[in-house]
C-alpha cells in the first residue's frame, strides 16, 4: 500500500515527497509556495540560497 501523497499537494517536498509544514513553502518555496527541496533532501545552506524555491545553487 502506497501512503505517499502526490507531490503537487501543499506541504509536500517536490523532490523527495517528505511532509512539510505549510509555512515552509511560504518562507522557502517558489512563488506558488511549493517546496522543491527540503531539509530531508538538501542542506539548510542550499535551502537558504534558494534551492527550495527551485533555483539552481552551487553545491557546498
TrEMBL record:
InterPro entries assigned: DUF7563
Source organism phylogeny: Archaea, Methanobacteriati, Methanobacteriota, Stenosarchaea group, Halobacteria
Pfam family membership, one: DUF7563
Protein name: Small CPxCG-related zinc finger protein
Superkingdom field: Archaea
Amino acid at each position: 500500500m502506497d501512503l505517499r501523497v502526490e507531490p503537487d499537494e501543499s506541504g509536500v517536498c517536490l523532490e523527495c515527497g517528505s511532509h512539510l509544514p505549510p509555512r515552509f513553502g511560504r518562507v522557502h518555496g517558489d512563488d506558488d509556495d511549493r517546496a522543491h527541496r527540503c531539509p530531508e533532501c538538501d542542506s539548510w545552506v542550499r535551502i537558504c540560497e534558494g534551492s527550495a524555491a527551485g533555483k539552481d545553487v552551487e553545491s557546498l
